[in-house]
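User: If only I could read backbone structure tokens as easily as an amino acid sequence. Underneath my words sits a plain record pairing an amino acid chain with its backbone structure tokens. This is the protein in question:
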Amino acid sequence: KKIIPDYLSVICLTCGERYSPALVISTAVDSSPTEPTIQVVLTYPLDVVRARMALQQEGKSTTRYKHMFDALVTVGRTEGTAALYRGLSATVGGAAPYTGLKFCAYEALKRTAASILHVDEQDLPSTARVGAGAMAGLMALTAVYPFDVIRRRMQTHAGGARYSSLWNAFTTILNQEGIRKGLYRGLSLNYIKTLPNVAIYLSLYDFVMLHLSASKTLSA
């Protein structure tokens, strides 16, 4: 049975064995295929109410939730349990491509930097690794950001479902609002929030892996 999607194989072609599709998926969703699914199902309603309460505090929502548990109960009672899982398809749809693009772009950018600086990849300076991480995060976030926009719109819409499907949401926003003001609205703020985080943890991951590799070599 084939469990690796074709698009992940294409994304990871440039990454060699280090970031194979199997490794990307294991990194994205842990070693067990059921654990992350259970985690998402159990915690996703909290993300929905967080998004709604954020809008409420900004004065952009007519709802009046007293606290998180009140929001959970109210949404479930007035809109149905399914309302607590609106946008889940967008979350799932964007997670694997984001992880695959991020890791593989990072690896490709490091190789490019090493070639430009005429050094081995393991000898890259920390600034080059951090820069590669930031660029990789920028590329991955830009590619999948429409999924985040759709997820938030689905989560924060009170009443009946705003869109009939993920594809319907994508085409509706594109047709009515366009690319820049619709599918990519708020992208610059997400760059500010996300890129430093991605740059730090990708480069830190590299440093830890290099240290462990050196330790194994010395002990062998």
In short: Residues 1-14, 16-36 have pLDDT under 50 and may be disordered. The two ends are 38 Å apart (CA to CA). Residues 130 and 200 are 6 Å apart (CA to CA). DSSP finds nine helices and no strands in the chain.
